[in-house]
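hiii, so i know i said id send this last week but things got crazy w the move. better late than never?? heres the sequnce for the chain we talked about at the cafe, plus the structure i predicted for it. fair warning i was half asleep when i ran it
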Amino acid sequence: MILEEYKEIVGSCAAYITMLQMLAGTVICKDIYQKSTSKGVDPMPFVGAIGVCILMLRYALMLDDPAMINVNVFGIVTNTAYMIVYYYFAPNKRNILNLIGKATLFVIFFLVYAQIEHPSNVEFRFGIAVTVLLLFLIASPLVHLGEIIKTKNTDILPFPLIFMGTLVSFSWLLYGFIIDNAFIMFQNAVGLTLSIIQLSLFAIFPSGNSEDRLLSKQRKED
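okay and structure toks below
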């Protein structure tokens, strides 16, 4: 492939952009700290990211790919830090512990599977599992689609993570083409599409619209 000579450069760029995306979580944690509560913030992006990074790290070790190994180690560390902040300010810590417990069992199941599966099959089958889980994580903000359409407000969506996720999906899609890995190409092609759909919601329903309409309504009533 004509781009193969740029494999290391594209891989490094993809890894750095992914790390920047992971650092976008600091913006959300800053808001949580300022409000002194994590109420109204979905914990799934943090919990899911930890789980997916652990599984992606296992997959990267199968491929012996340094770029993917480094970025997923970084992702585990940063998202664990974000989850600690989220948990500290969570009004209902029991619910968070239940979510963490379920995610932990889920991850353990797949790690055990990767260990006992036949070496000739594990890369392909584990790759499918990781791809599906990654796409679920990327699409998770769309769970709130009904509420967004109803309120015409995107405040519930984590814009920094979605915006950076778009750049991440594009960069890893290019890397997947270079190394000719079907799983990386597929998961990032779909991920890029999902990210663009979520970004379009911010254009259709700008953040703060509901507050503006409420103020406008109050002025008319006055």
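btw Confidence is low (pLDDT under 50) at residues 213-222. thought thatd interest u
miss u guys!!
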